[in-house]
Design a protein that fits this description.
90 residues, alpha+beta, Alpha-Beta Plaits, 4-stranded antiparallel β-sheet
Length: 90
């Protein structure tokens, strides 16, 4: 499983509606409204890099109201939770 952290800056009037829309997307497991330079932090999980690239570029980044993004790819997970089992991507 590939995990990406996408940090987004959005138009202030659209932050809530964008977050709600993202929360309904299958590939997105978590959406956080955050303080600081970015408005939202989105956790995306995918079977492979190709599916991740397709989702990020063809679905996520075309959402109206997004001003800027930064996508981070996670190499390794340090967690007490069994994320593979929790987010079975079959």
């Amino acid at each position: 499983m590939i995990t990406a952290i996408v940090l987004l800056t959005a138009e202030k009037s659209k932050v809530h509606s964008i977050a709600e829309m993202f929360a309904d997307m299958k590939e997105i497991t978590e959406v956080y409204s955050i303080a600081g330079r970015y408005d939202l932090c989105v956790i995306v999980r995918s079977k492979n890099n190709e599916n991740l690239e397709d989702f990020v570029t063809n679905q996520l980044l075309i959402v109206e109201g997004i001003i800027n993004t930064e996508t981070l790819i996670a190499f390794r997970t340090y967690s007490r939770y069994d994320l593979e089992r929790m987010f079975d991507m079959d």
